Amino acid sequence: MTVVSVLQDVGESKKRALNRSLLAWYRTNARDLPWRRTGDPYAIWVSEIMLQQTRVETVVPYYERFLSRFPSVHVLAEAAPDEVLTYWSGLGYYRRARMLHDGARHVLEHGGEVPANAEALQEVRGIGRYTAGAIASIAYGEAVPLVDGNVARVLSRWFAVEDDIKSAKGVQRTWAIAEALVSRHEPGTWNQALMELGATVCTPQNPRCLVCPVRTQCQANAEGRQQEFPVAKAKLKPRIERRVALVLRRGERLLFAQRKSEGRFAGMWELPSFIAGVGPDPVKTGQKLASKLGLSALQA
């Protein structure tokens, strides 16, 4: 059964029933999180960027500390990049901090107000379709969908989507479903409820179907195939990369290098290092380089 036919079969009455059940569950079971206590589009923007690929319990203290130092988009835009990274330090995926900072500067350059609809939000540097949907629906009440990993998993199970959810076809289908189902009256609450269901009930492993408020609407549950969704290609094996780092020291001073502004760990400070390949001994090469600089060298 195709997604299109499933959506046609659901009908408006069933969509409303699904909407009522999920929203009622969310109002009773939603976790009390700081970004759910505000309608400030900037604060919601910060939370959504921090929550990408990071657990909620990890994000909370960083979110509160970050907003304490950068309480508005104007303050963030005018801050030095290194200070922004300092307040992000330990949260990981530092490219998110740089893109958030760039986005704040973009907003300041274009009137100083966070755009009030999803289309305009996607013109801000660093804001994609998902983040735009989150800000627009939660802060401004615009009836637009969003699809993150949690939502994609929920929808793929509800409608037994057989496509790889990360493929072009799978992405198109999950977004089409999200668009068809988004609440026209409470889009922000609906979108948060979908994410909450995926985070706490419709989990990647061992989903808690017995306590799911919408299990009767779930095709995967009806077929006993919950663990088969979402469909995804096998992950590539990690590539092992051997590097040699140099400790270049003069008295109590150490030499650090800053990575380029693009690529892995862009802009981060680290000990000078290079990939250890075939050929001359990399440690001796490093020591020779340090000797030419008049510095002592140790392998790290």
In short:
The protein has 13 helices and six strands.
How do the SSEs run, as a string of H and E?
HHHHHHHHHHHHEEEEEHE
**Beta-strand content:** 5-15%
> What is the number of helices?
13
The low-confidence parts are none
Shape: globular
Please give the radius of gyration in angstroms. Answer: 24 Å
Q: How many angstroms does the end-to-end distance come to?
A: 57 Å
Write out key terms for the chains shown.
about 300 residues, alpha+beta, 4-stranded antiparallel β-sheet, two-stranded antiparallel ribbon, 13 helices, 6 strands, about 5% strand, globular
Structure overview:
The mean pLDDT is 88. With 300 residues, this protein is an alpha+beta fold. The strands form 2 sheets. Strands 1, 2, 5 and 6 form a 4-stranded antiparallel sheet that branches. It has 13 helices and 6 strands. The chain has helices spanning 3-29, 41-51, 56-69, 73-78, 81-88, 95-109, 118-121, 129-140, 149-158, 168-181, 187-200, 219-222, 282-292, and strands at residues 243-250, 253-254, 257-258, 269-270, 273-275, 296-299. Helix 1 (3-29) packs across helix 10, helix 8 (129-140) packs across helix 11 (187-200) and helix 9 crosses helix 11.
Q: What topology emerges from the helices and strands here?
A:
Blueprint: H1 3-29, H2 41-51, H3 56-69, H4 73-78, H5 81-88, H6 95-109, H7 118-121, H8 129-140, H9 149-158, H10 168-181, H11 187-200, H12 219-222, E1 243-250, E2 253-254, E3 257-258, E4 269-270, E5 273-275, H13 282-292, E6 296-299
Antiparallel strand pairs: 1-2, 1-5, 1-6, 3-4
Helix pairs in contact: 1-10, 1-11, 2-3, 2-8, 8-11, 9-10, 9-11
